[in-house]
From TrEMBL, chain A:
Keywords: Amino-acid transport, ATP-binding, Cell membrane, Hydrolase, Membrane, Nucleotide-binding, Transport. It comes from Brevibacterium jeotgali. This is ABC-type polar-amino-acid transporter. InterPro entries: AAA+_ATPase (IPR003593), ABC_ATPase_HisP-typ (IPR030679), ABC_transporter-like_ATP-bd (IPR003439), ABC_transporter-like_CS (IPR017871), MetN_ABC_transporter-like (IPR050086), P-loop_NTPase (IPR027417). GO terms for molecular function: ATP binding; ATP hydrolysis activity; ATPase-coupled polar amino acid-transporter activity. Gene3D superfamilies: P-loop containing nucleotide triphosphate hydrolases.
From TrEMBL, chain B:
This is Polar amino acid transport system permease protein. One of its GO terms (molecular function) is transmembrane transporter activity. It is found in: Cell membrane. Residues 58-251 form the ABC transmembrane type-1 domain. The keyword S-adenosyl-L-methionine does not apply. The keyword Cell membrane applies. The chain crosses the membrane at residues 61-82, 103-123, 129-151, 172-190, 230-251. It holds the Pfam family BPD_transp_1.
Amino acid sequence: MSTPATPHVPAAQGCTITNLHKSYGDVEVLKGISVDVKPGEVVCLIGPSGSGKSTLLRCINLLEEPNDGTITVAGFDATDPDVQLDEMRAHVGMVFQSFNLFPHMSALDNCSIAQRRVLGRSRDEADATSREHLEQVGLAELADRYPDQLSGGQQQRVAIARALSMQPSLMLFDEPTSALDPETVGDVLGVMRQLAKAGMTMVVVTHEMGFARDVADRVLFMDGGLLVEQGPAREVIGNPQHERTQSFLARVLHPDGTVDG
Amino acid sequence: MAMSPRKRAQTSRIVQYAILIVAAAAAAFVTDWQTVGEKFFNPTVALQQFPGVVTTALKNTIIYTALGFVLALALGLLLALMKISSVGPYRWLATLYIEFFRGVPALLVFIAFGYAVPFAFGIRLDTYVTVMLSLGIVASAYIAETLRAGLQAVPKGQYEAARSLGMSHTRAMISIVIPQAIRIILPPLTNEIIMMTKDSSLIYLLGLTASQYELAKFGREAISSPEAGLTPLVIAGAAYLVITVPLGILARRFESRTAKLSRP
């Protein structure tokens, strides 16, 4: 990967979640979660599948509607029924596990379409911004390629560039490397490290414990719809206090049952 | 003697071809070609069909089908959007409409708009309006299902990605979902036009003036004189093929293009 240009984050903002509840029918997925993410902070959400971490992330930009609780994000009261939802989402970048690039558009157009249709930028202005961010993720040369001509890792980096092109003040990552071939995971994590270093507020659902330990300011461990344990990354991953955190980390870090000595 | 499977397949193929050739030869032998030529392929009668079969009948078939299709597409899109709407009554209404018009014979709908509706309301519908309504309303029920399937075939993540970038529901549909759905929809939609071209023959029910005849009616009128034989119907049938075969080729081309685009 070519050396990325130094990214700049215009105005990182935080997000405050208070007593969040979410149910699907009779199943309660989030049972009262409160989290405060400070501007520029990198928070990793870890936990077993079904623990509610992706749901929590998707509640932040209201892709899932919470049943109870409040969320303020990027200066918007997300749970206010009168919130300007589209305007709020334009300030909150999101990266999905399955990339969700628009297959009928080139990488460049993927990055430009929302700038033009949502922010009202001209094509030239939007394309210039897009190229800048494609350069930042190391894909300037592949701007004219279509998603099906790109590897998984490249697609995910385009997806990151697409989100950055809206100049968000906060980024959400929903298991961004879970669908990738092992050899392309590093490129995506590299881009995310750069972004974290540049001061972007990031909330990352991930199973990459190495990334969480090195990059996150704080790690939250979720299980059964509850926030079980949180703290500085090295402490939670290196020295978990709660029994459920310990058994989860043991399984993730040593899947074959071995313990390194 | 034991035969290898490949040898056996080859023998079986040869036998099948042999039966086919014998059957064709027998049919050719017993057929009275003289009569067939006279009744079905009489060149004098065939020539008499021109230019009317093209300038009136073929033209009208295309016009009726096009009118019906425009209405069917507009109604179908509305119904498809209602069918995937989160508003319950919209979904129920759309389902009711679709099930009704897919369930009743098209012939009944033509009779309804041709006779029953004008009679009941004491109005006189223009022939073109009647045709557009009957053809369009029946086809819209089928097209609605085609469009709905196409819209739902676009992965949900596409819509979510668009919304997460700040696009409104309408913008996300226009810029992201519908363009992808169109590629999925084009082949079945082309087949739908082929069906409509043939369904337009039901117009024979309506009291048409000669200048309003479409292919089927044109052919039926022409065979009413005893000396014409069935040649006019053969010509009319061939004229349908002039429309439907190229459409069929087009549909297959769309299909192969869609297959290429959706490669992983």
